Amino acid sequence: MIMFPPCKINLGLYVGEKRADGYHELESIMYQLPLTDILEVIPAGEFSFRSSGLEIPGEEKHNLCVKAYELMKREYSIPPVAIHLHKQIPMGAGLGGGSADGTYTILLINRIFDLELTEERMRTLALELGSDCPLFVSKDVQLARGRGEVLNPLELSLDGYWVQLINTGIHISTGEAFGALSTRREAPDWKEVVNSPFSSWKKELENAFEVGAFQKHPVLAQVKKDLYASGASYVSMTGTGSTIYAIFEKEPENPLRTQESMLNQLFKI
Known about the structure:
Layout: E1 2-3, E2 6-18, E3 24-36, E4 38-43, E5 48-53, H1 64-76, E6 81-87, H2 97-112, H3 119-127, E7 142-145, E8 150-153, E9 162-167, H4 174-179, H5 190-194, H6 198-204, H7 210-216, H8 218-229, E10 234-237, E11 244-248, E12 263-268
Parallel strand pairs: 5-6
Antiparallel strand pairs: 1-4, 2-3, 3-7, 4-6, 7-8, 9-11, 9-12, 10-11
Helix pairs in contact: 1-2, 2-3, 7-8
């Protein structure tokens, strides 16, 4: 069985104080986009994992697809499967591709073995893989709070708009991102923001990690500036970086071209 784990972007990302458990309080709108990986899971005589497409760093045992299988095996005594992941979403790019892959492994195993798990149960399982993972159990736009795992559906559609994703290949570690956080600012009234025109988003929606990332990597600030110059209505970095996305109200006549980018993709939602 094959599924297509999507990426996500953060529409605004606000970071509060550190909690007793070591995580920071976060608030962000999570919006999924149709840039996907390709994930196949089938029953097999023994467990195996292989990947193609973009090279995945690290040991196999640390891959979230493998961790998801081990989690489901522990909880439900499922038989072995063969997993093939074709990687198209850049890693360490703030797009949540790895989180989606792990969660979609849970979704596929639920279907293949007729486990009939509820969305709530699958979100609980996905949370064991990572804070971003529960988002991908459904395709709903979510307002995320807590460490990112407290989700509430939000009425927001970008259908008909154009989105451009640009990743220059710069890797920003989580430690680096949190170490360079900008001055904290209160999160906005989210319902008011989503009902406002794009012209107000520039002032109302910010990513707390942008200032630090742009100071260390000026090319990212230049990409944002150039995207606005190409006609974008709203431009931001997603997650802890380093992908920059732009939202256009109509197809851009002269979309931004970049050299040696890991990702530069324009598509209609």
